[in-house]
Amino acid sequence: MHPARSPFTVAIAGGSGSGKTSLTRALVGRLGPLGCAVLDHDSYYRDLGHLLPAERAATNFDHPASLENELLAAQLRELRAGRAVERPCYDFSTHTRLAATRRVEARPIIVCEGILLLAVPELRDAFDLRVFVDAPADVRALRRVLRDIVERGRTVESVVEQYLETVRPMHERFVEPARETADLVLSGQHPPHELAEMVLATVHGRMEH
Fold first, then answer.
1. Could you say which DSSP state residue 15 is in?
2. Nearest Cα to Cα of residue 59 among 162, 148, 155
3. With b meaning 16 or more CB within 10 Å and e meaning fewer, what string describes 44-54?
4. Are 202 and 130 in contact, with CB atoms under 8 Å apart?
């Protein structure tokens, strides 16, 4: 009798607006809720409730230090050991962490999405497959503006200011260099379901060895 296989971990990294979330959703749609579990790096932003609202808004959210990477790494270890975790819940409109958490059960495949997953060595080394979703800078910028306005209640001015002050420079400093550590580099301009099939083909190939 073969021992139970540990969950296979997949990192979906890339610049903000590159298409990571669309790919992750396509993977979930392909695998189903029993086939995979999802963690998003954004849920691990540090709680800024102790700061004034203006101070929170001035935080560089695109630097690795803005995220509780050690907690994500610990929870990835728990999931790989077959144990469920309580994932944090973050409120982007107030830059604070909610008291409630979300239970994530261990599944055969663990998908984790975030711009900085490959830029943090402790996280990068926790994945069996590292995927980088690439897209031109103008496409990423436009997608981010739309997302932050619609989903996060931001103004156009605040999104553009943040993009110029932190998003672009941090992308150039941390995100883009980490592209070199990826096992797969995919174009975020291709249909997500096609990208998902490419990722799953690689996952299944590696799981068979």
1. S
2. 162
3. bbbebeeeeee
4. no
Site of tokens 């997302």: 147
Ordered domains of the chain (ranges, CATH)? 8-207 (3.40.50.300)
Sheet strands (E) in the chain: 8-14, 36-40, 85-91, 96-104, 109-113, 129-134, 184-187
Q: What is the mean pLDDT of the chain?
A: 93
Phi, psi at 35, each rounded to 5°: -90, -25
Rounding to the nearest 10 degrees, give the CA dihedral for residues 6, 44, 183, 78.
-10
Closest CA to 43 of 100, 106, 82, 84: 100
Amino acid identity of residue 160, one-letter, is: V
* Nearest CA-CA partner of 106 in 207, 43, 34, 42: 34
pLDDT for residue 180 is more than 80 = yes
Strand partners, 170: none
Q: Are 146 and 90 in contact (CB under 8 A)?
A: no
- The predicted-structure confidence for 24-79, as pLDDT tens digits, reads as follows 999 999 999 899 999 999 999 999 999 998 899 889 999 999 999 999 999 999 99
Under 8 Å between Cβ of 112 and 38 = yes
Which amino acid, 162?
Q
pLDDT tens, 113-127? 999 999 999 999 999
Helix (H), strand (E) at residue 112: strand 109-113
